[in-house]
Design a protein that fits this description.
The chain is of the alpha/beta class. A three-stranded parallel sheet has the order 2-1-3, sandwiched between helices. α1 packs parallel to α5. The model has no long low-confidence stretch (mean pLDDT about 85). α2 links the parallel β1 and β2. It has a single domain, classed as 3-Layer(aba) Sandwich (Rossmann fold), CATH 3.40.50.
Length: about 130
Protein backbone atom coordinates (compact mmCIF):
# COMPACT_ATOMS: atom_id res chain seq x y z
CA UNK A 1 0.00 0.00 0.00
CA UNK A 2 1.33 3.45 -0.87
CA UNK A 3 -0.76 5.25 1.70
CA UNK A 4 0.07 8.77 2.84
CA UNK A 5 -0.63 8.59 6.52
CA UNK A 6 2.23 10.79 7.64
CA UNK A 7 0.37 14.06 7.20
CA UNK A 8 -2.10 15.59 9.67
CA UNK A 9 -5.16 17.50 8.51
CA UNK A 10 -4.81 21.15 7.70
CA UNK A 11 -6.80 23.63 9.83
CA UNK A 12 -9.20 24.09 6.90
CA UNK A 13 -9.76 20.34 6.59
CA UNK A 14 -10.38 20.08 10.34
CA UNK A 15 -12.98 22.87 10.12
CA UNK A 16 -14.76 21.27 7.18
CA UNK A 17 -14.93 17.85 8.82
CA UNK A 18 -15.99 19.35 12.17
CA UNK A 19 -18.86 21.15 10.40
CA UNK A 20 -20.04 17.86 8.93
CA UNK A 21 -19.80 16.10 12.29
CA UNK A 22 -21.78 18.87 14.01
CA UNK A 23 -24.75 18.09 11.75
CA UNK A 24 -24.95 14.47 12.87
CA UNK A 25 -27.09 13.12 15.68
CA UNK A 26 -24.48 10.53 16.60
CA UNK A 27 -20.76 11.10 17.01
CA UNK A 28 -18.78 9.15 14.37
CA UNK A 29 -16.52 6.47 15.83
CA UNK A 30 -13.23 5.10 14.54
CA UNK A 31 -11.12 2.26 15.90
CA UNK A 32 -7.46 2.65 14.93
CA UNK A 33 -5.23 -0.38 15.40
CA UNK A 34 -1.46 -0.23 15.09
CA UNK A 35 1.61 -2.04 16.26
CA UNK A 36 3.42 0.48 18.40
CA UNK A 37 2.05 3.99 18.93
CA UNK A 38 -0.21 6.05 16.70
CA UNK A 39 1.23 9.44 15.74
CA UNK A 40 -0.07 12.21 18.02
CA UNK A 41 -1.80 14.00 15.14
CA UNK A 42 -4.28 11.12 14.84
CA UNK A 43 -5.71 11.87 18.29
CA UNK A 44 -5.51 15.63 17.68
CA UNK A 45 -7.31 15.47 14.34
CA UNK A 46 -10.08 13.22 15.67
CA UNK A 47 -10.63 15.45 18.71
CA UNK A 48 -10.66 18.62 16.60
CA UNK A 49 -13.20 17.12 14.19
CA UNK A 50 -15.43 15.68 16.91
CA UNK A 51 -14.79 12.04 16.08
CA UNK A 52 -14.63 9.39 18.78
CA UNK A 53 -11.30 7.55 18.51
CA UNK A 54 -10.75 4.19 20.09
CA UNK A 55 -7.08 3.42 19.71
CA UNK A 56 -5.30 0.14 20.03
CA UNK A 57 -1.53 0.56 20.32
CA UNK A 58 -0.42 -3.05 20.38
CA UNK A 59 2.96 -4.42 21.43
CA UNK A 60 5.40 -4.99 18.58
CA UNK A 61 5.72 -8.67 19.53
CA UNK A 62 2.02 -9.35 18.95
CA UNK A 63 1.31 -12.35 16.76
CA UNK A 64 -0.62 -12.19 13.49
CA UNK A 65 -3.45 -14.37 14.81
CA UNK A 66 -3.95 -12.02 17.78
CA UNK A 67 -4.09 -9.03 15.45
CA UNK A 68 -6.56 -10.75 13.14
CA UNK A 69 -8.76 -11.76 16.09
CA UNK A 70 -8.84 -8.17 17.34
CA UNK A 71 -9.75 -6.81 13.89
CA UNK A 72 -12.53 -9.37 13.47
CA UNK A 73 -13.95 -8.49 16.90
CA UNK A 74 -13.90 -4.77 16.16
CA UNK A 75 -15.60 -5.35 12.82
CA UNK A 76 -18.59 -6.86 14.62
CA UNK A 77 -19.21 -3.76 16.73
CA UNK A 78 -22.19 -1.72 15.57
CA UNK A 79 -21.00 1.38 17.43
CA UNK A 80 -17.96 1.80 15.15
CA UNK A 81 -18.14 3.46 11.75
CA UNK A 82 -14.87 1.96 10.66
CA UNK A 83 -11.74 0.11 11.68
CA UNK A 84 -8.38 1.33 10.50
CA UNK A 85 -5.34 -0.91 10.45
CA UNK A 86 -2.55 1.66 10.62
CA UNK A 87 -0.52 1.08 7.47
CA UNK A 88 2.81 0.22 9.07
CA UNK A 89 3.18 -3.48 9.79
CA UNK A 90 6.35 -5.45 10.48
CA UNK A 91 8.32 -6.51 7.43
CA UNK A 92 7.19 -9.86 6.07
CA UNK A 93 3.60 -9.59 7.31
CA UNK A 94 0.98 -10.03 4.62
CA UNK A 95 -0.98 -6.79 5.03
CA UNK A 96 -3.61 -7.81 2.49
CA UNK A 97 -4.34 -11.09 4.28
CA UNK A 98 -4.61 -9.36 7.65
CA UNK A 99 -6.80 -6.56 6.27
CA UNK A 100 -9.03 -9.22 4.69
CA UNK A 101 -10.21 -10.12 8.20
CA UNK A 102 -12.28 -6.92 8.04
CA UNK A 103 -15.47 -7.00 5.98
CA UNK A 104 -15.43 -4.44 3.12
CA UNK A 105 -18.06 -2.28 4.83
CA UNK A 106 -16.04 -2.00 8.05
CA UNK A 107 -12.41 -1.69 7.00
CA UNK A 108 -10.94 1.59 5.89
CA UNK A 109 -8.64 1.19 2.92
CA UNK A 110 -8.01 4.76 1.81
CA UNK A 111 -4.76 6.19 0.44
CA UNK A 112 -4.60 9.14 2.84
CA UNK A 113 -5.49 10.01 6.42
CA UNK A 114 -7.95 12.64 5.20
CA UNK A 115 -9.73 10.14 2.96
CA UNK A 116 -9.92 7.68 5.84
CA UNK A 117 -11.73 10.26 7.96
CA UNK A 118 -14.00 11.04 5.00
CA UNK A 119 -15.02 7.37 4.87
CA UNK A 120 -15.80 7.34 8.60
CA UNK A 121 -17.97 10.44 8.22
CA UNK A 122 -19.73 9.08 5.13
CA UNK A 123 -20.64 5.91 7.01
CA UNK A 124 -21.83 7.90 10.03
CA UNK A 125 -23.95 10.12 7.74
CA UNK A 126 -25.58 7.02 6.22
CA UNK A 127 -26.49 5.77 9.70
CA UNK A 128 -28.23 9.00 10.80
Amino acid sequence: MTARFDLPLTPEEREELARRVSGLTRRPALAAVCLGELPPFVRQDCAACGLYLEQYALPLGLGRADLTDLLEGLALRADLDGVLLWPVLPEGWDEAAIAASLPPDRGLDAPTWRETLELVLARAEQRK
